[in-house]
Amino acid sequence: MAASSMIMRLELENRTSFGEVAAVIGRSGGDVVAIDMIKSSKHTTIRDVTINYTEPTYRNIVNAVSYLPGVEVVNVSDRTFLVHLGGKIEVQPKLPIKNREDLSRVYTPGVARVCQAIAENPVKAYSLTIKRNAVAVVSDGSAVLGLGNIGPEAAIPVMEGKAMLFKQLGHVDAFPICLNTQDTEEIIAAVKAISPVFGGINLEDISSPRCFEIEARLAEELDIPVFHDDQHGTAVVVLAGLINACQLTGKRLEDIRIVVNGIGAAGSAICRMLLTAGVSRLTAVDQAGPLKPGVQYEHPVWNWLAQQPQLENRDGTLEELMSGADVFIGVSRANLLNAEHLKRMASEPIVFAMANPDPEVTPEVAEPFVKVLATGRSDYPNQVNNVLCFPGLFRGVLDCRATSINEDMKLAAAYAIASVVQPEELNEQYIIPSVFNELVSERVRDGVIRAAIRTRTARRVPPEYRD
Questions:
Q1: How far apart are CA 360 and CA 375, in angstroms?
Q2: Do residues 58 and 31 lie in contact, with contact meaning Cβ atoms separated by under 8 Å?
Q3: Which of 158, 264, 269, 263 is nearest to 205 (CA)?
Q4: What is the largest CA-CA distance in the chain?
């Protein structure tokens, strides 16, 4: 669980024992590490209390102290909030404007000639504007992290963070675009309207099932890549981890039997990615049970899955469906699995438990029974993190000016991520590389560009790829 610290400024009546305050903080999940006296008077004292805590306990601690008689919480600050003050990104010019001549070149009157050149040949927008390196990070705030539908304003910090990662890991200029609508047609129209500025669109935290139609329509109606990271970024990294897990266990993708639990945005994309990679035995499970071959579903993605010959025709509970499975992939809910589920799996089972924020099974429960465990958590080994995918992927599609992102490009990204883990490094605790490994973005870029050229999706071949 992610740890942090806060400073709580308290005004205590002198009759109030600080020991009682410390005890309440401890019972609420905090650890008092420092106490600084700020001011003392005849009736009260003001103290700054530094508290270490894990993220889920923050609100519990603040509320518990607030309810204490004789204690007033004057202010609470922590390092996380301080990082976000005033936002986390800004626009910086590439060259200074020092005199009138500089001004006349970057703005009027000199810029008019550049505008005219683009008007005569719109393709020049890629060479004469930010378009060639710009990505819109678009959200409607309807499915933000594990917080749900919190609205566009509350989604801004997440999209800012995404933009930071684009820049640091992929050298891509990304802009947070949080739309004040959750109407499918209005979102599509808004993204199309702003698209001339951008070389790619990254959709983020848009709830299912609307996200499927929004992505599909935009991909069809725009001539720049559109990528819903919650779906495909997750799927790419899962496949990367699975490739290495299979190498570690001596299993082959085309032979293993996989159970995917949770067929929403991420789960359906994972299923499609697995089939693209050659998986031949797949059981897809949602709340109503396993999807069945040939059945007509209201959900178009489920209908597509039901028509695939690799989808197994099975019935039963999740525990029964997991019997003999080589791999379990969960994008569902916390603490869904217990030891009995895992005991029924095939030898050396592989488990990807990615429910957010708590996985379907904890390492403490899984360790005696599984060969490899991956989660979405940064405090456990083998974190499935989309950050491994999107910076390098967009770096690649921008550099080759791809018109779209196809399955071959996503498959290339997965194998590129997997390749970063060297054979001598590969073990149960390390099947997925660190997000801070600089080779990841480079290799994903390379794989994506090669796949785009091979599938004739690239409109430009970078010099290093020309024969």
A1: 9
A2: no
A3: 158
A4: 83
List C-alpha distances in Å: 292 to 88, 181, 254, 274, 371. Answer: 47, 35, 21, 17, 29
- The type of residue at 366 is A
> Of 442, 435, 443, which Cα lies nearest the Cα of 419?
443
Tokens of 315: 């019935």
Q: What would the pLDDT profile of 84-121 be if each residue is shown by its tens digit? A: 889 999 999 999 999 999 999 999 999 999 999 999 99
Is residue 52 within 8 A of residue 30, CB to CB? The reply is yes
Residues tagged active-site: 107, 162
* Whether the predicted model's global pTM rises above the 0.85 cut: yes
Token pair listed for 153:
């304003």
